[in-house]
Write a structure and sequence with these properties.
Elements lengths: L1 H18 L5 E3 L2 E3 L1 H13 L2 H18 L6 H19 L2 H28 L9 H19 L3 H10 L1
Antiparallel strand pairs: 1-2
Helix pairs in contact: 1-2, 1-3, 2-3, 2-4, 2-5, 2-6, 3-4, 4-5, 5-6
Length: 163
């Protein structure tokens, strides 16, 4: 079971890294990546918080190493993935996962991006500068995740995970 979960996480990470240079929205020094939020929500629902956060970290790291992301990907994606998984576990509802992703990335991740931007990137942007771009990115990704969740894909993946 663990091997399958790791394999699915790796597949989602590969999709995230491969699509990161195709689908992103450049806003200032941030490269908003809505598909990251789709991956965060789907992994939180299908596999749980640990796998969602691990994939968010892995995608952010690989995107940075390949030059298709920025350091802001770390707080933006990981906080959203964590809160998405936590709220999904508490509510057992896709809406909990979506709310966690939007609040985690759009508000908390955006606020945590401020010190990263200031001290590591040298940006003079204000503390609330990243809230709107992160909110746009996570809301778009959350809508896509909800639409995908309503298809047969999650049921098929869940069935495959069971063995």
């Amino acid at each position: 079971m663990q091997i399958r979960k790791l394999a699915y996480t790796a597949i989602f990470m590969a999709v995230g890294v491969l699509t990161s240079h195709l689908v992103y929205i450049p806003i200032g020094i941030a490269k908003c990546f809505p598909l990251q939020h789709v991956i965060n929500i789907l992994l939180a629902v299908l596999l749980g918080t640990r796998y969602s956060v691990s994939a968010a970290f892995g995608i952010s790291l690989l995107r940075n190493l390949l030059g298709t992301g920025s350091l802001l990907a770390f707080p933006g994606s990981m906080v959203g993935a964590a809160l998405s998984g936590f709220l999904y576990k508490r509510t057992n509802s896709i809406w909990g996962a979506i709310a966690g992703e939007i609040i985690g990335t759009g508000i908390f991740g955006a606020l945590l991006a401020y010190p990263v931007a200031k001290y590591f990137i040298g940006s003079a942007a204000g503390a609330f500068f990243f809230v709107i771009p992160f909110m746009v990115s996570t809301t778009g990704g959350s809508i896509i995740a909800y639409l995908l969740y309503k298809t047969v894909i999650p049921a098929v993946l869940t069935e495959k995970l069971k063995g």
